[in-house]
TrEMBL record:
Keyword set includes Oxidoreductase: yes
Residues of the signal peptide: none
Key words of the record: Oxidoreductase
Keyword hit for Magnesium: no
Taxonomy of the source species: Eukaryota, Fungi, Dikarya, Basidiomycota, Agaricomycotina
Name under which the protein is recorded: Short-chain dehydrogenase
Amino acid sequence: MSNPNLYATFTDRQKQTSPSLVHEDLTGKTVMITGANSGIGFEAAKHFATMNPARLIVVCRSMEKAQASITQIEAETGYKNAEPMALDLGDFNSISEFATQANKTLERLDILVENAAIATTEYVLTRDGWETMLQVNSLGPALHVILLLPIILRTAKQHSVVSRVVIVSSEVIFFANIRPEAIASPNILETLSSKEYCTAEVIGESRYTESKILNNMLVNKLTALLPLNIVPVALSPGFCISGLRRNIQGEAAERYKRMEDQIAYTSEEGSRLILHAALAGRNEEIRGTFLSYLKPHELPDHMLSEEGKRTEDKIWNEMLELFSQVDDRVRDIVVEYLK
Ligand SMILES: NC(=O)c1ccc[n+]([C@@H]2O[C@H](COP(=O)([O-])OP(=O)(O)OC[C@H]3O[C@@H](n4cnc5c(N)ncnc54)[C@H](OP(=O)(O)O)[C@@H]3O)[C@@H](O)[C@H]2O)c1
């Protein structure tokens, strides 16, 4: 957040926005949310529970965490139809197994919220060999959404409804772009993940931002390729107090602490912005947008430029190539739904 003007705009908009809670009757619908055991995701899951969905799929890194979250949701809301599912976004096998399980057990999926993410200042590779924030925040959610598309599309068609795919991004996409050396490299994803590229500064400052830019690129691609009865939407939950920055130390941690004291929403307030993206507004107005402080906001110039569009196309193709190697179903899904 080095640009003081952008930072001032961001803090002003946060201070001026008092998020109201959208409430809708979700009877008969199936809602799924990742990262539902903590912070904004847990609060959003509780709000969904008060709206009586037929099924609320509480997705966490382990069944134990999901079950503990459900126990608390039940205790606080009285809702009885929450179901646990385990998903480690840093492990492609886990995402594949999740999809297999979902295909067996889910008759429909009306609202999918990709909320889980991490922020860290350490360069750590996942078991699949990708830098952790790149995989957990960007690659994992993209593969997860793609593998669930057959269920989501079937839901919209068979039940004549519009399904929403909600991706939790961040205001940070306005603060920086992916670095030029990565954009110019032969394989952007491999460069973003490489030790040489991931200096302490990249991991400490840029990587989280890059991972969220990739979230918005995913929404752009889904919007361009999927039929109108699927509404992909990205949102920022604002700056919230949560466990997200627990691994961040030093000067950055102090800066965030000051921001928490001055402008932060609680996780519950932040979760209202997820509910807004999942439920509010007319579908045709929400589709493909980035909701920043509850309103569709134009994406940053670096994403809208010719180079930004080329980068988005290249990253998308690299992702599809990678995912096709990871899971055989991806090729068929691409041919059937994403051409
Ligand atoms: N807090 C903010 O100010 C802020 C601002 C803008 C955007 N966001 C976005 O809001 C979303 C929610 O973040 P939060 O602030 O609520 O943070 P949080 O409290 O740390 O919650 C993050 C959730 O993601 C889960 N997660 C982490 N790694 C995972 C993995 N490998 N596989 C599956 N799940 C994993 C966590 O599970 P564990 O409990 O097992 O770690 C946790 O449930 C994120 O997308 C974040 O980028 C937050």
